[in-house]
Write a structure and sequence with these properties.
binds zinc ion; eight-stranded parallel beta barrel; 274 residues; alpha/beta; TIM Barrel
């Protein structure tokens, strides 16, 4: 396993961690000044802006872009809605390319008929493959914790994500492994080992006890119950050598703190608790 201590350039910040309290231009400066190696912006901060100029600012700050967050959900009742989601995702992939993002993060969506939803997700991702190839933007499917199966994602385990990758059979499609979503999975070691070569990103935060809101009460690494060094060792043993990205949704704690303070604590915890 790599030694992160003293190597913040191996780490990335997902901008959701700051709760969107400042414009992206300012967030880029803050993350670069703190010494991180990469950033992962969200569409809400980027769309409607001069995307190429943002990409230039990021590059000139010495930062890389890990992932661009995130896809419009694929499943929908009407074919026309599903087609609109695909077109929307293609537009966002162009922005991902202009930002220099390594991948486009796919939070896939769901519906109350999970089998239909999974079929629609497979069709939707397949429809994005030509765009992914021509833009050089990889597609990273992020399995979400099963608590989100009804409202955010019908792909809930790494094994399911890998099965979908196998069906699509294209090097442009892989997985984004988020410790918050997968820590509970009894098949974790085997699933991560099976994902060798297809891990496009790795997110860290912590699962607090008790968790007050599964969506927006994530913890800082070391404040909860996830064995993050173990999961990182599994991911790195499977060949992953990309950034370790902090992504914390925390409405009542971290989103209320100044970015400089959050950066200081992330750095300390990445060095000692991940
Ligand atoms: Zn994530």
């Amino acid at each position: 396993m790599r030694n992160l201590n003293g190597h913040l350039q191996l780490c990335a910040v997902n901008t959701a961690t700051f709760g969107f309290q400042a414009p992206l231009r300012q967030v880029i400066d803050e993350v670069a000044r703190a010494g991180f190696g990469a950033i992962a912006p969200w569409r809400r901060e980027v769309e409607g802006q001069d995307v190429k100029a943002l990409g230039k600012q990021i590059r000139e700050s010495g930062l890389k872009v890990t992932g661009y967050c995130r896809s419009t959900y694929f499943p929908a009742e009407m074919i026309s809605e599903r087609q609109a989601a695909i077109e929307d995702n293609k537009r966002a992939m162009q922005d991902a390319a202009d930002l220099g993002a390594e991948c486009y993060a796919l939070v896939v969506g769901t519906s109350l008929n999970l089998n239909d939803a999974r079929e629609q997700v497979a069709e939707g991702i397949a429809a994005l493959l030509p765009t992914a190839r021509s833009l050089g933007v990889k597609l990273a499917i992020e399995p979400l914790h099963p608590v989100y199966a009804a409202d955010r994602a019908c792909i809930n385990t790494i094994a399911q994500g890998l099965a979908l990758c196998d069906d699509l059979n294209d090097g442009a499609v892989g997985l984004l492994i988020d410790a918050y979503h997968v820590w509970w999975d009894p098949a974790l070691p085997a699933s991560i080992a099976a994902a060798r070569g297809r891990i496009f990103g790795f997110h860290v935060s912590d699962w607090l006890m008790p968790v007050l809101d599964v969506l927006n009460d994530r913890g800082m690494m070391g404040d909860g119950i996830i064995d993050l060094p173990h999961i990182r060792s599994l991911v790195e043993d499977a060949g992953y050598d990309g950034f370790v990205e902090v992504e914390i949704f925390s409405a009542n704690n971290w989103w209320k703190k100044p970015m400089v303070e959050t950066c200081r604590v992330m750095k300390e915890r990445l060095f000692t608790r991940v």
